[in-house]
């Protein structure tokens, strides 16, 4: 009964009525007190105005020979104006605080020295709103003119004191009225609250019964709407909610089917396990990873952990993966990086499946693994690490040589000129080598980040190749190589970055010159296919390249017979740059070689190369 809405409404209304009437009573009582005190202060201020009649008469009376009698007559004549009665009296005191006369029958009683009275006696004449609920007073010092100072001056103090008994009597009557009104108001509130509570609780009780039917599964039951107020709106909303619940259940089934579709289409493998270690759900990618063991429902949690190289467990409750290698703790679980299985690398996401029932106590019902194939990224990171190591090594070699030569020259100030020149030439040579390495690295960096500035123009490839052969003539002559150049007729002009294509051709031709024994043969052939593409073939009869090295030729810093290529002054980046430049033009570059027979390089470029000009 005490917890029912009916009782709560009655109790709230009663408390509200009592609180309101108590607050009103307190305000009224405080208002009466404030009004009485303010009225007393205003009345005294007006009566004892310095230029007023009362002050003038009192001052003149104080000058007379029979001053006490005259002042008494003046105050008696102003009795009504001052409000002198049985509760309010006046007194006349000398500057020593002795009472000379007054309207109080008990004149002989000693007056209490209040702050206002003490202030007037001392001559400051500051009247404060005084005594709280005990009294109200006002004190004025009278200064008769024409007399001496100090005690012979004839100064005196007029003191008005009100006992506030009249105000207390008024408050007592008012308090009785408030109590009586409160009792009557409570009785009326009780009667009204019973009717009001009944009008609210009855429809709610009916609504409660109807909702219990719906909760039991009776979706066909329609709740009756008997009013247009908030309760009626509640009933209408509940009917709407019932229909929405029915449609939501249908949507849940549909979403479950969608989830199955999404999981089956994911490239990442997803497999969820129940608390007992059996599979709850999986997708096609997971079946491809775990094979028949998952398809035949034989896969258990421990089998999954073993395959992914994660710590074994006796069940999900004892599963602690924080000790695994490469673990990253996230807000929702863990990510295990670089798990290698069956020759592939995976990142494995792990999270626990939690369920919160109606009592709010969260329960763990299983776990889920999301397995992402990162083999390509792993290989890329590995290549980058190797690239950084190679760069460090390639730069360290000339730096070591430069440092050694410099220290040698510095340690021997009397070194003969020929030896000094030898070491200085070494420093210069290694500096040039470092410059080539850095220049090639910058070129590759711009190509990788699409920051290369292309200067596109149209030019004749035959004249272009002849000019390069003339440029390379001194080097060809130094190695006694024979060079032939052949071209098809009606070769089309190409549109490309002339300087970048020249860089590629010079690199290929330089390799043929360097790695072909002196007196070798180098053939250059230029052909086209229906004037759509142009093919440049450079063939030599050099020492050739081992078959196992062919697939690595375009890798950065890769060298065949490293000692020989270093002696030739290569940086190990030339072919990598050539490949990037050719592919940027939309072309291809291939290398065929047989050990001991020679090497053939083919560069195929489209006639119309479409390149985007990027800012540096």
Write a short abstract of this structure.
The strands form four sheets. This protein has a six-stranded antiparallel beta sheet. Helix content is 50%, strand content 19%. The two termini are 84 Å apart.
CATH architecture descriptor of the largest domain = 2-Layer Sandwich
Q: Estimate the global geometry from the Cα principal axes.
A: elongated
At the first level of CATH, the class of the largest domain is Alpha Beta
Q: What is the overall number of helices?
A: 18
- Helix content range: 40-55%
Structural domain count: 4
Molecular structure report:
The chain folds into four domains: 48-163, 2-Layer Sandwich (Beta-Lactamase); 266-373, 2-Layer Sandwich (Beta-Lactamase), CATH 3.30.450.20; 380-447, Orthogonal Bundle (Helix Hairpins); 451-606, Heat Shock Protein 90 (2-Layer Sandwich), CATH 3.30.565.10. The protein has 18 helices and 17 strands. The chain has helices spanning 5-47, 53-63, 67-77, 79-82, 115-122, 165-215, 230-265, 284-290, 292-295, 301-307, 375-411, 417-448, 461-471, 473-478, 498-514, 547-550, 562-567, 574-584, and strands at 88-94, 99-102, 136-142, 156-162, 269-274, 279-282, 327-329, 333-341, 344-355, 363-373, 456-459, 482-487, 494-497, 521-529, 533-540, 588-594, 598-606. Strand 5 (269-274) and strand 6 form a beta hairpin. Helix 1 packs antiparallel against helix 6. The two termini are 84 Å apart. The relative contact order is 0.05.
